[in-house]
Design a protein that fits this description.
The complex is a heterodimer of chains A (about 475) and B (about 130). Helix content of chain A is about 80%, strand content about 0%. Chain A is mainly alpha-helical and about 475 residues long. Chain A folds into two domains: about 260 residues; about 220 residues, no CATH class. In chain A, a hairpin with a 4-residue loop joins strand 1 and strand 2. The radius of gyration of chain A is 21 Å and the shape is globular. Chain B contains five helices and no strands. Chain B is flat and about 65 Å long. Classes of the chains: A mainly alpha (about 475), B mainly alpha (about 130). At the A-B interface, helix 2 of A face helix 4 of B. Chain A: This is NADH-quinone oxidoreductase subunit N.
Chain lengths: ~475, ~130
């Protein structure tokens, strides 16, 4: 039966959604957040297995062309589920310390993940819109988790208002595109598109909506406040999984809806946004004294690097973006995880960089891991972050965008300053007063160690994933 | 493509001119004897007491929210109920899944006590902390 095949092609999303329902029902009836936690871990793990399996299966479209399966969509699903899994495993201890540990948090994370999975496989603007909203509405709630803190309320309200505003742009863009082409399916739009005024306006508005969600520069103002006011492990979830899902949707829109440059010169738009995002993100990050805000601006800068890959607009560029998303998910989840570890000992004020003085020697394994993740984010060679940046910039050079690649490399060199600054505080400053740090729990510690190992492993052994990635991309073009 | 909208623009123009014309006519031909009651903005019912920004019990919002959810369910259910014999089992399964999810949501809210209006049963867990 065709219907069942359709459902099977979106199996990871269905599993995650059912796990989400189970998580909130368990909370309501058993009042045990730990049970919800186990269900969440189990649901995401099973969904991850199915997503990995579909990575090696054939690619195609399902639900009358509303979604794609296999290929890029499957890779995006894997990255999203990895991000969700790591953030959930480090969340339990952290949220317990903040007194925020309840089953609804996991329910929200899972519903949001469902939206992200839909976003990563959307082949239709309606699917894209619905998934984006499912993801965002849950994220607005998660952003306001610290509801007794002013900073948490600010974060949620700011995210909600600006997010709703940007959704308006996105929806209006979809409406105009429908007006110009009488289609919402990405491939049908590509077939019917003419570079008319209406179509260009619509696509521009669609891009504005997506730029907002990935925090590209003229639309980035919400990022630092939201990231700062959200519980740190949830911030990791927003910065990795949500960003990855939106970028995969962006890749789908660019490759399927705008395959030729005859319907608008969107690569130049992306180039300008990429340059702005890299420069502004990195420059403002230099001046940050709060580690969470610094990582927020660094995530803006990373959106800029990813945009370089999109601007290149060739297979190498898209493959580079996908690999970068994987790398970024691993290293950023790790960096936020260590910050969450330091923070949960002494509360929110503990994210100021002054309080990091001399911390590196306290719990050596945590200090070393934070250094590994920050080196990787800075793009220092034996880590995965370097490989990701290399692919993206190499693709830009291949596409003849040498000035763009040069600006990217320079911006990335400037970023080393603020990443190393944290390490200077960790290892070369005297502590102001004596802190005692709790020992990290088993799951928390080993998740972070696994992330650090992956960061180094994929930095040393980068060839394998790329070649299979290339295969993925080309298999996807033949769909 | 804008030519096809021309009649609408003509209609708008005629309506605008006509409205202005009637207002001008009544101004010039009709008597004008104002007093305080006549110049007040029209409002039916009682005089307004206080502002709209007063604090309400949170229970009102929860009931309003659930009303919207099940109101929208009806919006989907009616067209489906009219056509579902022609649409086959696929839509039946889809609608069942939709209703089951909403039903789970209802059970969740009931269990959490959101429809519990008896103040004695409220758990002030958040305040105790």
């Amino acid at each position: 039966m065709n219907y069942l095949l359709d459902l099977q092609s979106f199996l990871p999303g269905i599993i995650v959604a059912v796990a989400g329902l189970a998580a909130i029902m368990l909370e309501a009836f058993k009042k045990s957040a730990n049970t919800s936690f186990s269900v969440t871990i189990g649901g995401i793990a099973v969904a991850l297995l199915f997503a990995i399996q579909s990575l090696y299966g054939e690619a195609g479209t399902a639900f009358s062309g509303m979604i794609v399966y296999g290929g890029v969509g499957a890779f995006g699903s894997v990255v999203v589920l990895l991000g969700a899994l790591f953030c959930v495993t480090i969340s339990r201890e952290y949220l317990r310390d903040l007194d925020l540990h309840n089953g609804e948090v996991y329910g929200m994370i899972l519903f949001s993940t469902t939206g992200m999975l839909g976003l990563a496989v959307s082949n239709d603007l309606i699917t894209l819109f619905i998934s984006l909203e499912t993801m965002s509405i849950c994220l607005y709630v998660l952003a306001g988790l610290m509801k007794n803190e002013k900073i948490g309320a600010e974060s949620a309200l700011k995210y909600f208002l600006l997010g709703a505003f940007s959704t308006g742009f996105l929806l209006y863009g979809i409406a105009l595109i429908y007006g110009a082409t009488a289609a919402t399916n990405l491939t049908e739009i590509a077939a019917a598109a003419q570079p008319t005024f209406l179509f260009l306006c619509g696509t521009g508005l669609l891009f504005v909506g997506l730029f907002f969600k990935v925090a590209a520069v003229p639309f980035h103002m919400w990022t630092p406040d939201v990231y700062q006011g959200t519980p740190t492990t949830i911030t990791a979830f927003m910065a990795t999984a949500a960003k990855s899902a939106t970028f995969v949707a962006f890749v789908l829109v660019l490759t399927r809806m705008l395959p030729s440059s005859e319907i608008g010169d969107w690569q130049s738009v992306l180039q300008v946004v990429a340059i702005l995002t890299m420069i502004v993100g990195n420059l403002i990050a230099l001046a940050q004294d709060n580690v969470k805000r610094m990582l927020a601006y660094s995530s803006i800068a990373h959106a800029g690097y990813l945009m370089v890959g999109l601007a290149a607009g060739n297979e190498a560029g898209y493959a580079g973006v996908l690999y970068y998303l994987f790398a970024y998910t691993i290293m950023n989840a790790g960096a936020f995880g260590v910050i969450a570890y330091y923070e949960r000992n002494h509360g929110l004020d503990f994210t100021e960089i002054d309080s990091y003085a001399g911390l590196g020697f306290k719990v050596p394994v945590m200090g070393v891991m934070l250094s590994v993740f920050l080196f990787s984010l800075a793009g220092i060679p034996p880590m995965v972050g370097f490989i990701g940046k290399y692919y993206v910039f190499a693709a830009a050079v291949q596409a003849g965008l040498i000035p763009l690649a040069i600006i990217g490399v320079l911006a990335s060199a400037a970023s080393v300053y603020y990443y190393l600054r944290v390490m200077v505080y960790l290892y070369f400053k005297e502590a102001h007063k004596e802190y005692s740090l709790k020992t990290p729990g088993f799951l928390f510690k080993w998740t972070l160690i696994l992330l650090a190992v992956l960061t180094v492993y994929y930095g040393v052994e980068p060839v394998l994933p790329t070649s299979s990635l290339m295969e993925l991309i080309s298999s996807y073009y033949t769909v | 493509m804008f030519e096809q909208y021309l009649p609408i623009f003509v209609l708008l123009g005629v309506a605008f001119v006509l409205a202005l014309a009637f207002m001008a006519l009544s101004r010039f031909l009709g008597p004008y004897r104002p007093n305080t009651v006549k110049l007040k903005p029209y409002e039916s019912g009682m005089d307004p007491v206080g502002q709209a920004k007063d604090r309400y019990s949170i229970a009102f919002y929860l009931v309003a929210m659930e009303f919207i959810v099940f109101d929208l369910e009806v919006v989907f259910l009616y067209p489906w109920a009219v056509r579902f014999l022609d649409m086959g089992t696929g839509t039946f399964v889809a609608m069942t899944v939709f209703i089951v999810i909403l039903f789970i949501g209802l059970i969740y809210t009931l269990k959490k006590g959101t429809l519990d209006w008896d103040m004695k049963n409220f758990k002030y867990e958040a305040l105790k902390k």
